[in-house]
Amino acid sequence: MGPKNMKSSPMKILFQPKGIILLQGDQQAPTPKSLSPAPGNDSGSGNPGAMGQSSAAQGPGAATAGSQKDGSPKKKAPGLDPCLSNLPLLLGAGILFYFLLIRPQQKQEKQRKAILASVKKGDKIVTTGGIHGEVVSLDDRTVTIKFGNDSNQRMTLDRAAIGRVPAREAELPQKRGG
């Protein structure tokens, strides 16, 4: 024998990011602000009915963990801005990047410019295209080399086309640990 006179009220189910909320009858859906738990107040605090209730629904004068007795929210302790807390990490990465990538490349470019400036008549060179030859004449922008078995084979190149000067490379100090 079941209860026949009992009035059943419709139930609403709300799916929220913070959890599922069941509403009976004419209950109003909580606002998104009242869904988020106060700082330091987790939803498993032993009060299962507290989820979705605002501090006003808990009663006047009831202070939650995220508010003071008068109902105003707690002020956060002064701390570093999140951007400033990452500043030492970014500076460290920048310094590491400079010493591992930029500085060695600058040294290598400086050596290359010094070698190209010191090229003189009679030096054996290798072009960036891999042609081996001997410098016959040169001016500020171009170099004329002779190559091959015949001494009449000559080619005029830009100075930038000189890849390396083997005689000058032997004079440079060798890298350690390489």
Structure overview:
There is one protein chain. The chain is α+β, with helices and mostly antiparallel strands. It has a domain at 118-171: Roll (SH3 type barrels), CATH 2.30.30. The chain has four helices and seven strands. A five-stranded antiparallel sheet has the order 6-5-4-3-7. It has a two-stranded antiparallel ribbon with strand order 1-2. Strand 5 and strand 6 form a beta hairpin. It is elongated, with a radius of gyration of 40 Å. The protein starts with 10 loop residues before the first strand and ends in a 7-residue tail after the last helix. Residues 43-59 have low confidence and may be disordered.
Based on secondary structure, the structural category is alpha+beta
Helix content: 25-40%
Shape: elongated
Strand content: 15-25%
Radius of gyration: 40 Å
What is the tally of beta strands?
A: 7
CATH hierarchy: architecture of the domain at 118-171: Roll
Strand order, sheet with most strands: 6-5-4-3-7
Distance between the termini: 93 Å
User: What is the fold named in CATH at topology level of the domain at 118-171?
Assistant: SH3 type barrels
State mean pLDDT (0 to 100 scale). Answer: 75
Reading off the top of the CATH hierarchy, the class of the domain at 118-171 is best stated as: Mainly Beta
Order of helices and strands: EEHHHEEEEEH
Query: DSSP helix count?
Result: 4
Main sheet characteristics = 5 strands, antiparallel
Low-pLDDT residue intervals, each spanning 5 or more residues: 43-59
